[in-house]
């Protein structure tokens, strides 16, 4: 296969969860030229910029598809035209509020908060529900957890299947609502409209899916990388950025 484009997840694939990209990973990405690079993540653009850096996005990537592809940022800018933007520009967005009433949104969030309150997670921090306009990010431990608490929870989740159980409960509760529930990163569940999973990003990629290679760490089971991975010509499930680098060096010389 001679890929025309590579599509990457961020947390757990190009970066460790909520950490910055390393020079080693950046160096590996350079090897993939002249193929186009796309970033598709459940995170919002604020977190993408924190972890990747604006310069890296503009130098390496064609587009960033944040919030599972429902927020598309163009990074292929004309840097010689001083009248144009020097920052990634938002070119596409959708919102849950266009499809669900405010009372419906309130009911979803209230249900999530009750689930977090009834859960016996070892740590409870804060920000259990994060509104991302086109997506709701839900965490049973809370997004305010430290990196150490995050890693501890991830180990517990792998052992107990806690998020899988929560997803099945939520799917039953909201049967008929047209909602999608997928595990995201180490600690969260991405909630959005069915069809607004990461495969939605393919609508804003010029290459055909069969000409693309996907890298992600959550492809199996309820992972939020599964929907896009199976549509691409090839995919690699990785355990972290080190494995991503190894595959690039060994397979895409």
Describe, in plain words, how this protein is organized in 3D.
There is one protein chain. The protein is α/β, with parallel strands linked by helices and 253 residues long. It has two domains: 5-94 and 196-251, HAD superfamily/HAD-like (Rossmann fold, 3-Layer(aba) Sandwich); 97-193, Hypothetical Protein, Haloacid Dehalogenase-like Hydrolase, Chain: A, domain 2 (2-Layer Sandwich), CATH 3.30.1240.20. 32% of the residues lie in helices and 20% in strands. It contains eight helices and eleven strands. It has helices at residues 23-30, 45-52, 54-60, 102-118, 147-160, 162-173, 226-229, 241-251, and strands spanning 5-8, 36-40, 63-66, 71-74, 89-93, 129-131, 136-139, 179-184, 188-193, 212-216, 234-237. Strands 5-4-3-2-1-10-11 form a seven-stranded mixed β-sheet, with no helix packed on it. Strands 6-7-9-8 form a four-stranded antiparallel β-sheet, covered by helices on one side. Helix 1 links the parallel strand 1 (5-8) and strand 2. Helix 1 packs parallel to helix 8 (241-251). The longest helix is centred in the middle third of the chain and has 17 residues, at 102-118. The chain is globular and about 50 Å long.
């Amino acid at each position: 296969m001679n890929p025309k484009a590579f599509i990457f997840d961020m947390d757990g694939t190009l970066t460790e969860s909520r950490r910055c990209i390393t020079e080693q990973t950046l160096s590996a990405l350079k090897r993939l030229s002249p193929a186009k690079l796309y970033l598709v993540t459940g995170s919002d653009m604020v977190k993408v910029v924190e972890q990747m850096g604006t310069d890296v996005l503009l130098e390496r990537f064609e587009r960033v598809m944040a919030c599972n592809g429902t927020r598309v940022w163009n990074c292929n800018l004309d840097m010689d035209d001083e009248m144009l933007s020097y920052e990634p520009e938002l070119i596409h967005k959708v919102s849950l509020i266009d499809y669900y009433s405010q009372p419906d949104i309130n009911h979803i969030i209230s249900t999530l908060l009750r689930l977090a309150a009834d859960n016996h997670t070892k740590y409870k921090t804060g920000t259990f529900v994060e509104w991302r306009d086109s997506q709701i990010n839900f965490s049973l431990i809370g997004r305010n957890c430290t990196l150490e608490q995050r890693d501890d929870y991830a180990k517990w989740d792998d052992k107990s299947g806690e998020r899988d159980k929560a997803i099945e409960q939520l799917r039953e509760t909201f049967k008929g609502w047209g909602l999608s529930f997928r595990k995201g990163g180490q600690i969260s569940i991405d909630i959005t409209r069915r069809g607004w999973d990461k495969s939605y990003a393919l609508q804003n990629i010029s290459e055909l899916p069969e000409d693309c290679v996907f890298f992600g760490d959550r492809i199996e089971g309820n992972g939020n990388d599964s929907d896009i991975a199976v549509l691409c010509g090839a995919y690699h499930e990785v355990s972290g950025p080190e494995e991503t680098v190894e595959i690039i060096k060994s397979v895409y010389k």
